[in-house]
Each structure stands twice: as C-alpha cells, then as structure tokens.
Amino acid sequence: MKRIPFLIASSGLFLATGVFSWGAVPAIQTAAPAVAAPNFQSSVKPLVEGHCLDCHDETTHKAGLRLDNLPADFRTEKSAATWTHVFDKLIAGEMPPKKEKRPPQPLLTGAEQFLYLQLRAASLDHQVKQGRVAVRRLNATEFENTVRDLVGTPVALKDMLPEDNTTAGFDNVSAGLDLSATHFLRYQEAATKAVLSAIPVSPPIPFSEQHSGREISEKGSNFKQTLTKSCKLDGDALVIYSTLPRYGLCATPSVPTAGRYKITMSAGAVGAEGKPIPVGYMTVESSGRESPVLKEVHEIPAGPPKVIEFEIDLARRQQFVVNLLTTWDIRRFKKPIEEYTGPGLRVDWLKIEGPLDAFPPASYNQLFAGVPLKAHSVVKAEMAHTRLPNVDNRRADSWYADPLEPDSEHPKEDAERLIRSFLPRAFRRPVSADVQKHYADKVHAKLDDKASFLDAMLYGYKLILSSPDFLFLTDDPLSGATAQGDLTTPRLDDYQLAERLSYFLWSTMPDDELLAVARTGQLHQPTVLYAQVERMLNSPRAHAFTKNFAGQWLDLRKIDFTIPDPVLYSDFDQLLLWSMPRETESFFEEVLRKNLSLLSFVDSNWAMLNERLALLYGVPGVQGNDFRKVTLPPGSHRGGVMTQASILKVTADGTRTSPVLRGKWVLDRILGQPPTPPPPDIPAIEPDIRGATTIREQLDKHRHTPACATCHTHIDPPGFALENFDPIGNWRTSYRVTERTKAGVVELPRNTGRQAYYGPAVEQGGQTAEGKPFKDIDDYKKILLENKDQLARSLTQKLLIYATGADIQFADREVVEQIITRIRPRNYGFRDLVHEIVVSRIFLDK
C-alpha cells in the first residue's frame, strides 16, 4: 500500500479514551520534500527503548504490558491490539507518565504518526478483504420479533432462548453472540411454539359476562379482608381507595379461550378534590398464584361514572383487572371508611366479551392459507381409516385436549405452495428454486413417512426457522468470496442493506415496502435511502429502536433490578416505577422526532413529564398521566437524561447511592470514556449509612491507593455531581437513615408504620480531573458541554456499534470524525446523526 507523506502538528492530535480525532488534524499534505520513508526502526524503536522499557520490559511489565519483545506486526489481531493501546496512551499523554522525563517532541510525534498510519492501513485492509464482522446471528430479541412478524401472533419466545452476552455495551454485537447445540434445540422449541400459536385451538366460542361491583366482591370471597378497609360498597358499585391485593381484585371472570377481548366498564373517579386518577389495566392468571401484570396505565375522569371501552389480549384462563396505582394510602385514615373523602375509583359494572378475532385468524392464513381445519381426533381417525368421532363444537375446555389442526386434501401440493411462499419472507430475500425444492422435499419425505400434514409442516417450518439463512444476517463476508477467501466487494447488496437497516431501526425483518425497494436495486441511491430512513423512523415500529438501543445505552433494561428500601423510600410506588422508563423513552423519541441536538441528552430546559414525575421533581402545573413536553422552572436541577428518575434508579442499589457507580455510568454512557476495571484485590466501598464516616472520606482512602488514584480522579467528579439525587430520583440535601437522629423524621406521603430520619448532609461538588471546580450537577453539565465533539463522538460510536453489530475498529475512527464534522454545523441534530450513520462507509459495507 503506497504511503502518502504528510505532516501532523503534534498539538493537532487529540484522543478521547482510545478515539483518534482525525477531525482535529490538519489536512494531509499531498506534496512533500522527498525524504526516506519512515519505518519502525527509525520512528518507534528509539522511543520504546529510551522511554518505555523501564516500566514495560521482561522484569517490570507494568499493567501486564511488555514492549521489549512486541513484534512490529500491525496485522495480527493480538499485536495490533497492543500497539493500538500504546498509540492511545501516547496520544492521551499518559505514556510515558507525566512524572517521567518527557521524550523530545519530534520523537514522540514521529512515533504517533507512524503507528497511526500502520494501524489504519492494516485495519482498513482487513475490512476491505474480510469485512468488519465475520458472522452475525439474530439475538433473542430480534429472533422473537422476526418470528412474530412471520407468524403474526404476539408469541413470547425470548425467555426460551439462552441469554445473549453483552459486548461493547450491546447484546447484538457479533463477537458476543455465540452459538451452541443448546441454541439450535431452543430455536426448534421456539419455532414449534410459534407455529402452534398461529393455529386456533377451537372454533369461535363466544364469551360474554357482566358483573356489578357488588357481584365482583361477592365472587371473590377474599374481599371480606378488604371491604371496609381499602374498599367499600355503595349500592351495587364497588369503590376502591387503595391498591387491592391479589387475593381480592376488581376483575372479570377468566376467559375460556385465548384471543382479543372487548372490555366495557362504567367507572369514575371519586374524592373531594374532583381530580382524575390513574389506574392500571392488568392481567392475572385465574389460579391466583401470580401477581397481576401491569399492561397499560390510563386515567379515569372525575364525576359521574362514564362508560369506558377498550380491547385487550388475554391468554386462556386469564382475567382482566382494573386497579389503582396510588401515591396515597388509606391506612393513614383512622375513621370509618364511609367518612373518607380522598381519591378513589368507583366501578358500577364490568363487562367482557369476545374473542373478537376473525376465524380463522390472519396468523393462520400466514402459515396455512387455504388449508381446512379439523379436530385432531378427526384427522387421526381419517389417517387410520377408522370411524370418525362425533365432535361437539360447544365443548369449550375439551378443545384443549382435542384441538383443531390443519389437514389438507392435497398435502404435497399445499406443502410445496406454503413452503415456497414462506421461504422468501423468512430469508428476507429471493430464494433460488433449488433451495425451495430442498425444503419442500424435506416436508414431502415426512408425508411419505405417514406423518400428518401438521407434523410435516411443523417439521419444515422448524427447519427454516433454525437454518443459517434465517438465523444469520446476510452481511456475512464469506458470501461471494474469492478463491483466496477475500471479499469480491465490501459493499452490501440492496437486500443486505435493507436487512441491516431494518434490524437497526426496527429490530426485526424488513417490511414489504423495504424489500420491494431492494428488489429494484435502488436502495443505495442517497435520495431513496434517505426517504426510507425517514419512513422507518416515522413508523410505530421505530419504538423498537428506543426500547433496544436506548434501553441498553442508558441501562433502562435494569429498571426492575432493585427494589427501593420500603423504610427509607416509602414514597416509591408502582405508578412512579411505571413512569420512570417512559419518561426517558419519551425524551429520546422527542429528540429524535424533532431532530433536536444530541446535546439535549446532557442538558435541556425541558422534560417529558406526567403528573407523578412532576410531583417527584417539584414541577408545578402538570396534571394527568399522559406524558407531555414541559418547560422546566428555574432552579429545577433537571434537564437531560442524567437527572431523570430512571437513570438515578438504575445507578443506585435501592438503598444507597454510590458516586463510583454513577461516575462510571457517566464516563461510559455519556462521555464514552469508560474507566479501567479495578484490580481484583481492591475491595468495594460500602457506604456507612449511620454517618460515622462520609462517602467522600472513604473515597479519599481509595484515592490514596496508587492502583486506584488515576481512575478515581475521573470517576468521582460526575458521581459527586449527582449525589444530590437519592435512589428514586428525589433532590436531597441530607441522606436518609434508619436510625433516629436529632435532625428528625423525614416527612413522607405514606404512613407505613416505619420511619426514616434525616442523616448527614449530602456531600456535593468537587473538581474534575482537569481541575475545573463545580458545586452541583448544573455546574458539571456546563463543563461537559464545553467539549461538544466528545459528547457527539461517544453517541456516534455507540450508534455505529449497535447499527452494525461490531465494535469500533481502528479504521472506523476517521469515519466517526467525518460524521461529527458533518453534524457539527447542524447543532449535532440527533436525527441528522442517524442519517449520517446510515450513509457512512461503516454501515454500507460488510
């Protein structure tokens, strides 16, 4: 590869934790005086021998790094990774250490230039010949979503599959997606479940029941424990003043068959305040052994009861439940319940009817269109040529012992037709006649072995849904390789591009329109690609981008991992937990939808709030459960994602906050500068909640340990900037403790019989590793915003990793800088960033 001589001013090189900023480097000089080409012996070896071997030779090898025997090999993965580490440390000024004698600047600059050119050339050559990612399979989320789209039922499959590893922050990165015999077994089990979910168990069995509030209480014998305590009867109406426990619920009867049902109820909010109240629409198994599962949150208007209608999906033997999600507790009221004037829910009557699904359902037609349904016993008798049983269509529960199944009069013809139709959808591209024949022959062979039509088709569908063509994305660089095993071209074809685009923005297979555009061969055209990205971002399916990218980037998936201490944080409730991740998701989608600056994720003068979160944040004037954009009042200390309750919860343990945990989170997720993991012999810090020693005093001891000092200089500042926020998102000036103090009792909205006390004052403020002082999170956010490019660089890298399923490689660094250069004049618009990702070389190549 011909090298282009160039000069780079040493002051122009910039690195942020391993990210070489090409955008900060002066332009390449295409003309230069004729000089001897630099080489390792003249450019790097003098620096290593003169300034590195004292710490990194055979005897010392600090941090496990030896440079005395490191080969000048930039193409072998292991040695290239080590030289990349050396390069990054040189650029960051961390090698040699600041306390050591500094090497002459020309020597340092020459080594940096040589290493950069060699590492970039080796990385780019590998990408051109082999692609950035060797092979990439669907992760569990993508598998479930894709099968759901193919089959047409909301079947849950993810929990059946082995858990995916997280690599570089995401669970869709190829390097972490292993494959084993267990995977294939589970894929076949999941495929069986999915296919069977598309087949109706029985003909339509109409179900309709209506009960008054009184009848609901009479049918639940355990209401005796809640009536007159948390609920009461008013004529035939049931009035609920607190969340009902699972042993006495305001619920419909359980349904005999799975399907979509219509719920109608006459209900209204009561109470002296005359305000609407939030309620949860839930489902629960009729066995009563499991707690209700919250599906949706809605508001019930105040005033006379109104008729409310909606639809909900229920499994067999599930019940619909309506329950309060309260921030209050009637146990604080010591008088008879008849005198209570607080907020509550009045239910006059509750009705359920359905199932509403067409018969046969659309899901059946996606897999078995044109094939009649018969009871299993009938199919079995016909195959055995015995007397046909008499099937009663009104038999309800007995259908589950003798369910319907597809049975073709022309099995081979129907099997071939259905398999040939299914394959292009499953493989997400045209399928050759030979491949179609291969799978059709497999099904035919089963039929020849006297298998039933269902068993033969189930076998065929399982083969397809566990095949490499389904499980792996087709950006596999081994496809279309030369005799030497290199790519004929690194560029994705249109079908591969459609697939990558769809799994990036929708976490599922391309839809018909996207595949149709790919079929024309025009998807790579910039205007066509832009239009498709806009269409996809505007689709409801794009919520998967929020759930799966933002859910991992910001750790929203961990929202349920901890339960706040009920003594210290009795102001935590189910409605707040439900609201927390939805605020962050709504914020993310608002920034994306309006093309707002990605800097909004660090700070903004607005938030997406409902009444419950506004109460927590002290923002007045927000009523109702719907999220809306709210301008924050001066001094609110909110804005951006770091101060949102969801983030504050996932970066705490439920009882205490840790500046270390929060500091690491900010460095990694916001700044893109994750700290080095601590040595294995360093104990974790356990805050003293009794107040004998402060967290800052304990961290000071850590910082005096040489192995810890460097990292804590960077970790602690953002952690202390967030220390004013407790584990559920309250702003605080004092810690809460469980032991009595002179400062007194913390006033909480719930009287649980247990009390929390004001403890020591919160330790806030500090100074950054660069020596910039701050007093609170407001000051710290201003410091972060001084380096806008690094904030953009961090998010750009994370989007590229998630979008392509591969970690950032050395040759990718200049692409990252090119993207930042293009979005900088547009105030770092987030939607613009997504578009730039999609047209980048990294996204368009294998």
From TrEMBL:
Presence of keyword Protein biosynthesis: no
Residues of the DUF1585 domain: 771-843
Domain of life according to the entry: Bacteria
Domain DUF1587: 136-199
Domain Cytochrome C Planctomycete-type: 52-98
Pfam families in alphabetical order: PSCyt1, PSCyt3, PSD2, PSD3, PSD4, PSD5
Positions of the DUF1592 domain: 492-619
Keywords for the protein's UniProt record, in alphabetical order: Signal
Signal peptide positions on this chain: 1-24
Protein name (Swiss-Prot/TrEMBL): Cytochrome c domain-containing protein
Source species: Chthoniobacter flavus Ellin428
